[in-house]
Amino acid sequence: MRRALPIILALILVSFPALAEVKPFPTGFKAEMIAINDAKIYVRKGGNGPAVIMIHGFGDTGDMWEPLATVMMGNHTVIVPDLRGMGLSSSAEHGYDKKTQGQDIGQILDALNVGKADLVTHDIGNMVGYAFAAQYPDRVKRWVAMDAPLPGLGHWDEIIRSPALWHFNFRGPDVERLVAGRERIYLDRFWNELSANPKAIDEATRAHYAALYSRPHAMHNAFEQFAAFSQDAIDNKSFAAKGKLAMPVLAIGADHSFGPGMAAELGFAASNVTGKVIANSGHWLMEEQPAATVSAIVDYLK
Q1: If pLDDT is split at 50, 70 and 90, which confidence band does 302 have?
Q2: Domains in the chain, ordered, with CATH?
Q3: Averaged pLDDT, 169-178
Q4: For 65, which DSSP code?
Q5: Quick one: which of 38, 78, 167, 287 is 20 to 30 A from 257 by CA?
Q6: Phi, psi for residue 286 in degrees, rounded to 5
């Protein structure tokens, strides 16, 4: 299978559309609600072989990983959750700090009888992924982290002063009233301003995610992910004080976003970091450059 993988990958990548689109997961995937802590997590699982778990961020749900999951299910057991309170997972009153959500990931793997897994993350998923890896280092074989920093580590205090990140502190009852019924307008801001080419996030993709973020409490829960950053910074500094992660890490940055700086940021959390830059992309790597991003991840994990 290893010898055939480059040929299979090449054939699949050639079939990718120029622009990403949200597609259903292949029929080999099954979805279930897994009870963890005080929430129920919507989890897709399919394929056979060593496990890989994929964690999304804000503006997406686990649906973002379909192109990668489709490629990897041939020789991996692919596990794709929606974070608590997001996508089709249940709303939770508390627990949006990433330490708790890292424990969510551990409980998901326990429920699926999975011991170790490769880890692929993006955006806030990086923060959950680090919290999982720091608490359960023996359960992560390799980690691919894409285009977002870690609260409290590296250049975090400088990064959060960027005017582009005003949304980190945009929350509260009045904010939720302003956004209610206008979720699409709010999300368009991220897709337009944080992409290299806004047209890469097509109308169908925008409508798909806008509908999910318009579900009851969904935007409140998303705001809570950002509200937890102060606590996440405290927790991450505590994790890092115990030592850097030892597992191999691939840090992928988009050339119009974090670029090579992504490897530098992850270097504050892990000792064995390889950097990769995806050309002609902003923050939304899986939507803007799906073929190149999938190729980089599969090549690293094969």
Answers
A1: confident
A2: 5-301 (3.40.50.1820)
A3: 96
A4: G
A5: 78
A6: -75, -25
